[in-house]
């Protein structure tokens, strides 16, 4: 199986480092020339949950760069069986979609790992529903520099299309992908309920990420006081109200899952906290911002989501 990962962030580096021994070929496409050159010279340094540290040699992985230019050559798209899109939503531009549309190998399937909602129909519109899968994951990782990553929490990764239709050949192929992920140490499964799972992950991110960014705490520290737990509960309640208004069924045990995610990734710095600390734009517009917008159209008020949205936007400057 040949894989290409687009994005050298925390999850991109984590998945690349753990999948490379199991692939016939793995290409990592970084977004900056500087990161690509550093990776090409020294490979990826990974620290496992056990504390074990190892280096994935630069000779075992192909490194390319794509910074959004329309005239860049990206060989990794042309021979991959699966392309894991691990960029944040703002990076999914029309230029990128046009590049995927023109250069993605005929047999390739794109798997989108984005947080939030809004990207699904844009990607499907460019490539077609039959070539696009979506993934939600609760794996925790923290990038430490441009070439190092620390695995901070085990989670579950669900993969599937937005429609439940899948012929036997595709199902067998995707089962092979699941087996590769399991061998790499990821708890993975195929799902026919991806819309619900995307919304469940949206709820998890909308409760955890902005609070960790505003309070500058790890995921686990959100459970330390009654005050932070009450803030989490208020955000969860409002998220449930929006889902109900749009006839989306959330998992009955979702609140328990949110608490378990905080516990399982207790040492993790959320991606939003990492962005705030790094002075980068966050994904708040695609998380809490999306809920606030949808609530407005449904005639709902979300005072808690609106407040954390405004606070994170103020922190972005």
UniProtKB/TrEMBL annotation:
The record's similarity note reads: Belongs to the ketopantoate reductase family.
One GO CC term, this protein: cytoplasm
What molecular functions are annotated in GO for this chain? 2-dehydropantoate 2-reductase activity; NADP binding
Indicate the segments forming the Ketopantoate reductase N-terminal domain, all copies. 4-161
Q: Give the residue spans that cross the bilayer.
A: none
Q: Which NCBIfam families match?
A: apbA_panE (TIGR00745)
> One Pfam family name from the record?
ApbA
Which reactions appear under catalytic activity for this entry? (R)-pantoate + NADP(+) = 2-dehydropantoate + NADPH + H(+)
The Ketopantoate reductase C-terminal domain is annotated at 193-316
Q: What role is this protein assigned?
A: Catalyzes the NADPH-dependent reduction of ketopantoate into pantoic acid.
Sorted UniProt keywords: NADP, Oxidoreductase, Pantothenate biosynthesis
The EC category is: oxidoreductase
Extract one GO BP annotation from the record.
pantothenate biosynthetic process
Native source organism of the sequence: Paenibacillus whitsoniae
What is the protein name stated in its UniProt record?
Answer: 2-dehydropantoate 2-reductase
Cross-referenced InterPro entries, in alphabetical order? 6-PGluconate_DH-like_C_sf, 6PGD_dom2, ApbA, Ketopantoate_reductase, KPA_reductase, KPR_N, NAD(P)-bd_dom_sf
Pathway(s) where this gene product acts: Cofactor biosynthesis; (R)-pantothenate biosynthesis; (R)-pantoate from 3-methyl-2-oxobutanoate: step 2/2
Alphabetical list of SUPFAM superfamilies matching this protein: 6-phosphogluconate dehydrogenase C-terminal domain-like (SSF48179), NAD(P)-binding Rossmann-fold domains (SSF51735)
Question: What PANTHER family does the entry give?
Answer: 2-DEHYDROPANTOATE 2-REDUCTASE (PTHR43765:SF2), 2-DEHYDROPANTOATE 2-REDUCTASE-RELATED (PTHR43765)
What are its E.C. numbers? 1.1.1.169
